[in-house]
Amino acid sequence: MMRNYKKIDIDTWSRKEHYLYYTKVLKIEFNMTAEIDVQKLLNFCHENGYKFYPLMIYFVTKVLNKIENFRMFKDEQDNLCVWDQIIPNYTIFHEDDKTFSDCWSDFSENLNVFYNNIIDDMQFFKDKTGISVKDNLPPNFYCISCIPWVSFSGYNSRVTNGEPAYFPIITIGKYAKNMTKIMMPINITVAHAVCDGYHVGLFFEYLQSEINALK
Q1: pLDDT-based confidence at 162, cuts 50/70/90?
Q2: Helix (H) or strand (E) holding 102
């Protein structure tokens, strides 16, 4: 599949000063954890025979693609660019040896097309171990994983002496009943050079709206 992108004109970009500050002076990333109500998503899964994790990957990917700042990267000439679309690089857990492997699937706005893509990949690579089980990961990816054993209230992961990654890193926790809702923590990690709290707020707002809109 062709990976299309466009170059951002830094001089006319509204975030020019912020971008230069967070790439030249303070090279930081930040992360935020918030809870979303997944009751409707769980009902949808139970009523229609879908698996929860692949559907969460679908909605997270759909929402990230709505917000340009989550699709940004630097090309080989160090130009800031934005992909037309990003795809999920997700984890598969191996019950036998308790390790995980990275896998990726092409994204489609069509829920059933994407769901079948990811189910097929998960099934094909479920018995292959190692850090990465599917070759030729496209450059327009983001990372998503699930920690279904812990309902955390915060999460942080850093690369020592490394540069902040421009692609989002999403971590999903264990959902639990809270009064009349079923709440699930989601953590998002981003580079401040390309994202602010406003964009992270949009991510959580849009994600909850997508789930609430399920019929």
Answers
A1: confident
A2: strand 99-104
* Predicted local confidence at residue 3, as pLDDT: 79
Supply the angle between the helices 111-125 and 52-66 in degrees, to the nearest 10: 130
Residue corresponding to tokens 């929402």: 63
Residue length of the chain: 215
Q: Tokens for 55? A: 């559907």
Task: State the average pLDDT over residues 79-91.
Answer: 97
Distance of CA 128 to the CA centre of its chain: 23
Q: What are the distances in angstroms from CA 177 to CA 40, 102, 180? A: 13, 29, 7
- The total of other beta-carbon atoms located within 10 Å of residue 3's CB is 13
Within 13 A of 158's CA, how many CA atoms are on the CB side? 7
Q: Can 199 be counted among the known catalytic residues?
A: no
Amino acid letter at 65? N
Q: Given a cut of 60, is residue 2 above it in pLDDT?
A: no
Q: Which amino acid is at 82?
A: V
Q: Are 81 and 74 in contact (CB under 8 A)?
A: yes
Of 18, 46, 94, 192, which is the active-site residue? 192
Using CA atoms, how far apart are residues 84 and 71, in angstroms rounded to an integer? 8
pLDDT digits (tens, 9 = 90+) for 34-84: 999 999 999 999 999 999 999 999 999 999 999 999 999 999 999 999 999
- CA dist 129 and 136 (Å) reads 16
Q: No. of H helices and E strands in the chain?
A: 5, 10
Is residue 54 within 8 A of residue 61, CB to CB? The reply is: no
